[in-house]
């Protein structure tokens, strides 16, 4: 897949020192309810719902489960980036520019839709018939980059550094950003975003620094995680989105000594933009006129959507 680009994102690691002196408190926490999406897929959507319409710069978070025969056939995007993190199975990707690829368990794909792209995302057939499970996060692009050329960057599981703490009871995959003095690979997305995958064993605890002023949330995948701030501790169960207050420089997380098993959560932080968010399905722009233009451009196959004329993905034909 192509990774070249004439643009460069803002720094992923801020220049000011990171500290853990003022842990953030929880603003809200809620269960992500499972629903249907695409063609036969099941998702737990937490960002992009009435509970949480958007959380700048984040537009949507889906925890998806795609069984064989289901998926996301040919569909367009404009004005955002998508980050797909596969937890199990494998998912194929194909777009109208001729890019094709597959991500497997532990891999990620960072896609910049920019001025326009049409693609399909379809699951592989697993031998045991199990579903393909992962997370997809939609991230806003700064206004000046919304009409940039599309691009991709894949990150393989083997490329992701890990860090440990608390005598091995805390392990974090540093997908993007910095944790426990370990830094990730750079320039995976234009919008500065941290993605950290934490697993905490019973009795383990961690203090994780965050860039000041950035939006931050956690999505709980397994077990019960305790988030603490200012002497208040709050246990959060599986499949919850935990939105943290903007004030503070870190989060504190732990698992009870006597817990039945480990807890796992994804911690996400991003630099918010001071710009309007106007979303119409897969098109994310900054005003209503741009929505109309995006729809017209897609329908007329122009201004970024020229290659959609007559194009059909091969992998999407599996749905026919």
CATH topology of the largest domain: Jelly Rolls
The CATH superfamily of the largest domain is identified as Jelly Rolls
Question: What is the CATH architecture annotation of the largest domain?
Answer: Sandwich
CATH class of the largest domain: Mainly Beta
How far apart lie the N and C ends?
Answer: 26 Å
Number of helices: 1
Count of distinct structural domains: 2
Largest sheet, spatial ordering of strands: 1-22-19-24-17-14-13
> On the 0-100 scale, what is the average pLDDT?
92
Strand content: over 45%
- Assign an overall shape: globular
Number of strand segments? 26
User: Could you state the order of secondary-structure elements as H and E?
Assistant: EEEEEEEEEEEEEEEEEEEEEEEEEEH
The major sheet is characterized as: 7 strands, antiparallel
List keywords for this structure.
2 domains; RmlC_Cupin_sf; 7-stranded antiparallel beta sheet; 320 residues; single chain; Jelly Rolls; 4% helix; disordered N terminus; mainly beta; Pirin_N_dom; 1 helix
